[in-house]
Amino acid sequence: MSGHPNSRGDKITKDYFNNLSDQVNELFADTHANEGPSETDDAAVQDDIRWGWGGTEVPTVARGDKVTSSYANELVNRINISTYRTDASDDELVVTSRGGKITADFFNTAHDLLELARIKRNDVDPNLTQLSTLNTYSSSTSWTNQFEIQLDYLFGTDPEYYESARHFFNAGGDLRLELAYANGTGTGYTAWRDLFIAMGTIKLNVETTQSLNSVGVTQDLGFSELNTTEKLLYTSPAGGGGGYGGYGGYGGYANIRVKVYGRVYGDSNKYLNLRIVLDGTSTSITTSGDLSITASMVHPSSVTEENVTLDIPQPVVSNPSPWTQT
After folding, report:
1. What angle do CA 132, 25, 173 make, to 5 degrees?
2. From the centroid of its chain, how far is CA 281?
3. Distance, CA of 10 to CA of 5 (rounded, Å)
4. What contacts 112, CB < 8 A, 6 or more positions away?
5. DSSP H helical segments within 125-203, as ranges?
6. Which helix (H) or strand (E) holds 28?
7. pTM for this structure?
């Protein structure tokens, strides 16, 4: 980040403050709204939309305006929230007293602390998050070949759905999926149940989709890469032998897999859609039991500093396409 006074004697001009304000706003507020999603998978656009938590902006200084302690403290509060929630530094800026002088040392410290937070812009201290269940969708239907479900996530309010989703993911939020089978019998049921256990929880964040058990194949695509074209995000290990114990005796079930696809769609790209496919096309044996998928989230906590609060949007989930044999 540029705009760093060189020494204690340097004059802190409005340009220094405006540059600092711009950098604060890019991180804490949102200066890249309406840039995504990228339908052409432009890496620069995808990087841009990973900036911004959706907080309130601090204004820049107009020519001739005096930089007051009140204005400086608007920056202080946002920088303190930024370093605290990203766990970028244990240091904290001290609020400037009314009439107090804004020194080069103060400005340089503010500059350096902000830069630490900007480096960790999509991180959040795990102690400042909450894991909660959004909903569970179940089926006791017997099926063969392929079984799938779709989940829609809706963030914020009209028309800021997509931007609110950005703020959730940019601030360190993530979505999680966990599959389970119970009360079934037979080789197919056992193979799918054991695969779900081995795969564990699937996590989608701003930059990737992966198993918390570190198994399977991720396409290394997260929310920032989603657009209106459905993309494969994650493929589980192969059931019946994917390198985590082996189910060699399961015959045709040796190649069953779970696949997760993602896209955004609707007016203003309002919905984040995940399609979860149980691909058993390697076998035609009927599988039955009590199947469930639990949708949960890790939500960043609200943080307040003096008169400034950063409150991250929360999603609601719906089920536009229930469990269906395809």
Report:
1. 15
2. 32
3. 6
4. none
5. 161-170, 187-199
6. helix 14-28
7. 0.92
